[in-house]
Specification:
This protein has helices at residues 8-35, 39-62, 89-95, 98-122, 126-152, 160-165, 170-173, 177-180. With 188 residues, the chain is mainly α.
Length: 188
Amino acid sequence: MLEPIGSVEEFYAHALAIEREAAHCYRRFQEHFADHGEEVLAGLCGNLAHFEEDHHKLLLERSRSLKVPELPPERYRWLESGPPEAVDCELVFRLATPRELLEIALKAERNARRFFEWVAGTTANGEIHALADEMAREEAEHVQWVTRAIEYVRADGVDWEKLLAAGGGPGLALGGERRLRKGPPPAK
């Protein structure tokens, strides 16, 4: 079991790391979605990155006079959480569907919300409680936004209506091309 956050400085260390990672990842997701013609998702991630960046700056200002401890860099990473060879981040971006990338964001946002709720519920310090409660509410809003975006994206990442309208579809991938040919089946 984790020990409750014992100081405002410790709280800020965690909050800053969470916000920094979220801002960084949302900027990467924004760029990826923009490069792949997913303008709505790129816009959402750009907005979330902006909110996370602004919040990170605010936390830096609030903690400017404090001695904030350093946390291990991998503590709140969304993608690269182990040794460099563990996850090839670029491979994730090449292989993941938009929905899978959003699910990574959703998991991180839910983890952040749960962390801040846990802090608010376990601390005896009124200042830490108020800060954690504020952060938990903001993370809950981000969870809602990402959840709505996931609902927007098809589960399989394929727009079958568009594909069928263009004359393609799952039947072609499963040997359906033979049904589309005129005349007898090819000789074996």
